[in-house]
Structures are given as structure tokens and as C-alpha cells.
Amino acid sequence: MLSSLSKSTLTFKIGFFILLSLVTLAVLEPYINNYLLRGHSSTEIGLFPKLLPPSLEHPLGTDHFGRDIFSLQLTGLRYSLIIGLLAGGIATLIAVVIATTSGYLGGKVDSALNAMTNSVLVIPTLPILLAIAAYIRMDLLMMSFTLSIFSWPWPTRVIRAQILSLKERPYIDLAKVSGLNSVEIMFFEILPNLMPFIGVGFANAVIGAMIAETGLRLIGLGPGDIPSLGLLLFWSMGFGAIAQGYYQLVLAPAILLILIFISLNLVNIGLEDMFNPRLKRITGL
After folding, report:
1. Backbone angles phi, psi at 68, to 5 degrees
2. Hey, what domains does the chain have and what are their CATH numbers?
3. What is the pTM of this model?
4. Backbone angles phi, psi at 207, to 5 degrees
5. Residue 223, SS3?
6. Which residue in 122, 124, 267, 129 sits closest to 200, CA to CA?
7. The dihedral of CA 113, 115, 119, 121: what is its sign?
8. How confident is the model over 208-238, as pLDDT tens digits?
């Protein structure tokens, strides 16, 4: 068991370190690009000669519009993480409220909310996202909110399953005897014990939102003034970067997206191994 726990802790630490490094780069992006570009925007056209090869001054070279590719990736990383974290945060908040209410109250409330959750899970979300992105003017908040609408059902199911177990514990009976009402028990007694599972649900929601956002951008939908990693990939594909041999234009945003997904999945696996009793083989199942 100790060996399993140390392995899960190492998995979590590796994922958290990668994620923290990426978030740090995203937070420092305005300062790094301000220094590299001398106050200019990374999306400004004609700042440098076109299609320069990688060098000390331009680590990834420049693109077909004379923009520094490295600076563009930092900007794309920042916006992709903002969209993912905002959408994941909203989705997790919705999931926590619905799962806590459904799991603790039970009965008809649980049946209704569970049916709603399962209904959203089986809805083909891509066509709906395509329609929304095509006909509604998007900004950063609207994009995040739209993605969150379809990201909350899975975390809801994960959190609800844990609440069904926790509400039968003796300390919940003690809380009832002590005179606490249902809202106080749900959000002050049960919720603090769900933080690892909320973390897992949040990571899943972020991954789902970022995959959906990247998919929309790859087909040219979404706000054109928000240069996320998905939009950078779309620009590169439109330019024909691979066919012309400018692989860094595609590889750079693709690698950053892969690193984000790997880090979040490693954090997920680590949290699951540490806090899921079935995975720790405590229950014998």
C-alpha cells in the first residue's frame, strides 16, 4: 500500500509541476512579451521579416505575417488556460451544487436532477456548440460559459456518487442531532470531505472544455480576437505550414496542448490513487 501511495504521489507531483510551469509561463506572458517585443503585441503583423528560421532572437522563428512564433505561443497558452480554467470553474461550481443537492436530499429531487444530468450527457454536444459559435457573437466570458454548459455532467456524477456514501456516515447523524439544517450539512459537513473529488472533476472539466474549444477553433469558429492555441493551429493549417516545411508553426501549439492534457491527467490519476479507497484496495473490491 505504501508503495502504491508513493507512486501516486509521484504521479501527482509530476503532473502538478508541469501544470504549474505552464501556468507560470501564462501568468508571466505579458511581461515576457513586453520585453521580447518592446511593447508591441504578439499578434501585430509585420513586426519582423517573414518566415525567419529559429535563432537566438527568435527561438521558433517568425511566421508568414512577420510575427514571433515563440511570443505567439505564450499568448496562445495564456488564453487557452484562461478559457479552460474559467469554463472548468463554472462547470465545477454547477456540478457541486447539483450533485450535493441531488445526492443528499435524494428522493424525487435526486431522480429529477439525475435524469437531467444523464440527459445532458447523451446530448450530441458538438452540433450544438457549432450552432452557438456560428450564430452568437463570442467573447472570452461567453466562450467559457458556453463550453461550461456541456462540461458539468461528468463531474456531477463523480461527486454525487461520493455524497451518497458520505451521507450515511455517523458524523452526518451527529450533525442532524446537533440541529444543523440540510444546507449546513451539505455545504459545511459533506463538502469539505469532497475536495479531492472536486479537484478530479475540475481537472476533467478543464480538459473537456479545452478539447471542445480547440475543436471549434480548428474549423474556424469562435472569437477571432482571442488567439488561443487552437486558433494558432487554425492559422497554421490555413497557411499550409506542414506542406511548406514550417513544422514549428504546428508543433509548438500542439505540444503545449499535449503538455496541458498530460499534466491534468497525471494530477487526476494521482488524486484518484490517493483518495479513491477502491484503487488503494482498502475495501477489498
Report:
1. -70, 120
2. 77-265 (1.10.3720.10)
3. 0.86
4. -60, -50
5. coil
6. 267
7. positive
8. 889 888 888 888 888 878 899 999 999 998 8
